[in-house]
Every structure is written in structure tokens, then in C-alpha cells.
Amino acid sequence: MQRPLSTCFRARGKRETTTALILLVTLLLFAPPIAPRGANDPPIATASVRVTVSGTAGGWQQFRTPTGFPGLYYPSLASDPSDLGVIQFGGCTSVLCTSASNATWLYSEGSWSRLAPSVAPTPRGEAQMTWDPADGSVVLFGGHGCQNPPVCDHWGSLNDTWTFSGGAWHRVLTGVAPPPTIEGALAYDPSGQQVVLFGGYGCFVRCTTWTYSSGSWTALNLTTSPSFRYDAGFAEDDHDNGALLFGGVASGVLDDTWLFSHGGWHGVASSAHPGLRQSPVMGFDPGLGLVVLFGGLYITLANFPGITYRDTWTFQSGAWVEALIGTATPGARFEAAGATDPSSGVFVMSGGCGPSGCPYTDTWGFGVFSAVGFNSSRAACANFTLDGVPQASGSSVLFENASYALNVTACPGYRLTNVTTVGNLTLTLGHLNDTRANGSVLVGGPGTVVANVSAVGTSPAPALFGGRLPLSVFQFELVILGAVVASAAAGTFLIFRRRRPPHPVTRPASPSPASVAARAPQSPPKTA
Questions:
Q1: If you ran DSSP here, which 8-state letter would residue 113 be given?
Q2: Which domains does the chain carry?
Q3: What is the rounded distance in angstroms from the CA atom of residue 232 to the CA atom of residue 269?
């Protein structure tokens, strides 16, 4: 019996479809992927640096400041691990501090942003501020500023206490408090887990040492202490387990060093030390494990307008060492402030005044440098720009830990497929297409930015199904083509079936017994 045409068509279509699918799967599985050009190239050597540092393992680097960032005399800076950055508050907006700011800024991962707390201290400058890890907040005391808010037509010395954490300021009512103080020395003492206040303008003959802990001030009755002074450098010194004091002004400019530790003052005799100066920037750099001192002013009636320094010194284990930084150094300055950024471990300096400008609006960091390299699949396939500075593929440059703007552009004749990082770099991409990528890189140590590129007309294998089925461009195009052909064939077949008129199935009539007998073969006659 012969099968109808439609049955043959369906059977043949199924066989051809099955055969095509088998061929397609075979091609997908066994066709070699097209690797991007240069994917197997040897590593490119890296060998350029941003600065030369000698005499210390760290150095200075300038960071970008946003439009509108203020230039200030005597701003107050403090490390703020609770907000993962450095807090800057207030600062004088005039030379004699007859006007001041009450703005709060946060520096984190290489950039400044202005905060808007609902409550804040009155406008002021020359205030004392430090991080208090025992209470988990920034402590601010005194300064020169507005005495009758909100009118603020009376300015003078203040003795109020504030704390800052979690983006908010809180007034602390301490009861007993030190007298109104400006340009005093405030720092955390790790040996006693307390904040220490010493000196300040208006402290004459003898200065009382105060400690602050758990919201209360305590005056210490000490037989040994530094001479009275104001405008000294003072910083937490974790390595020497205390708080380090240097220089300042009394009847003249000073250059002595003292360490407050275990409840008392101890004079430090170092054969080398910074010269006579007031208003230096001081702070502890945890990445280097030492105290950093920069700049300051030496001025007398005889040498007016004085000497403004731009030297850098470090202190560790009872000894001062001058850091020979070279030309990559901030401009000479005084009346600036500094603190360590907990998000990066870099000591940050802001504000101040000097012979080349008053006040400064630049921001500098002192810390450890990390080598950041730039590679593409071929040396000429992509161009890099980090922190606004062009970097050639195959190069390496030194950066301090921070977040930097990144731009990657494919060279003519190439396409950019993705950008990745290797090592202690964190990449954030905001835009990526065939020609360019924009984003940022957070440097937390050595690493390399890698641009994956290919010549136009080829492309690296895209990873499908979560990377479990890598396909070449040829294989991927076969998948798409196969899907299109299968969809078109299915659609055509359905249309054909719908338009074909139905054919009645005719069955042959059942043969009669007579006709069957007539067609049956006759047996040959039997022979005798």
C-alpha cells in the first residue's frame, strides 16, 4: 500500500530537520573558537614611575578637589572611620579669622563631598579636633568663632564640645570643661585610651593638661609638662604608644619634642629634628607606622615676614628623620591641617597659607605608593587615562591608595570588548561599548588594568550560560542563523498546512468473494 504524499512530506521533513540539527550541534561543539588578537602574547614589561621617593617608603601626591571646595586658614581635620573618611569642619575665611565657615566636608577614597547635617557647631576656625576610637566619634573642642548664633555679631574664643559620627553632629554637655581655647593641641593617646588637650592661645605661664573620655573632661595635676604654648603640632603616635607634641609659640618659637603616654609627659631628645616652627601639619600614617610632619612657619620681629617651610619629617621610636621627597612636594605652607583617611590609609592635608598663595585650595596625600600597570592584548590596541593623565599600554605608574577616574579607548581598527583588573584594584564601569569604557579604579595596592581588544572583524568568544558554554563568533552566528532558519521553516510549514485544502480519504471497496477467487492463482491439475 502506498503512503499518502503528506505523510511522506512530514517524515522527510523530520529526517532533514534532525539531520540539520545534528550538523549544527556538531559545528558548535567542534569549531575552534576565534581568540582575540594578542590573547597569547607574552606579558608586556612595565617601567615608569610618577615620583621618585628616597629616604622613606612613602611620599606626597596631589589629589583633585571639586569645584567650590573652599580655601581656608586653620580648618579642622580628623580621621573618621565611622564615616570611612576624613572630616573637615569650619576654618577661617579671613586672615585674622573675623569670619569663618561651619561647613562639613567628607574626604573618602580620593575625593571630597560636602555633607549637610541638620545640626552643626557655629562657624569657627582654629578649633581642636581629633578621632576618639574609644568612644567611636570625632571630638571637636573650642576654636575662634561665633559666640551668639544665629546673629553672629560677636566673635571670640569658644569652649564648647561636639562629637561627629554617622554623618551627624551632637553637642556634648560636659559640665566641667577646659577654658576657651584656640590653636590648642588635641590628640588621642592610645596608652590611656583618651583624648588629650594641651595649651592654646591665652594659656600663659603654665598650661593645664586635660583629658576627655566618655563625654567628660578631666584636668590633670602634673609636675612635669611642656612649657606653655599655642599653635604646636600634636598627633596620635600608635608606634610609640602615646601622643606626640612638637614646636609651637610661647615667648618665642619652639622646636622641642614631647610624648604624652601612660598619664604623663616625657621629653624626647632626638639628634636630628625639624627646626624652630609653629603651625606645622602633623598626623599618624598607619600605612608607614610613623608620625608625619610637614611645613610650618618661623617668624619673629627680626625676620618678618618669616620663613615658610615645605620640608617633610617622620618620627618613629624616639627619632626624627627628614624625608627626602624631591620635587613632588606640596607648596610651603602653615595654618593647614591633616588627618589619615581610613578608607585608604593615606595621610591627607588641606588648607593653609603660604608665600605662593593664601589660602590654598589644594589637597595632598602622604602615604605608600602602589604600582598600577596598564595592559591590552596588544601594546597598540588601547589607550588609557587614569586620573586625567594619559598612560600608554605596557606602562606602569605609582599611585597612592585612592579612587581615580578611568577612561579606556580602543585604537583605530580595534574593538573594545571589556575591561578587567588584576591584583589589588577594584573596577567600577559606568559605560562600555566597542570603542571606549569609562568608570573608576580604587587602588588598594599593586595591580594592573587590562583592556581586552580585538581587531575589527573578529571578536573574543562570548560566554553563554554563565560561562559554561564559551562560543566563538562563528559558532554564535550559527546559533542565530539556525534559530532564524528553523523559525522560518516552521512558519512556512504551518502556513502550507493551513492553506492546503483537505483531501478526503478514499478507501478501496472491499472485494467480493467472486473477484477474490478469480484473482487467486489456480493450482495445476494433478497428474496420475
A1: E
A2: 66-361 (2.120.10.80), 370-464 (no CATH)
A3: 17
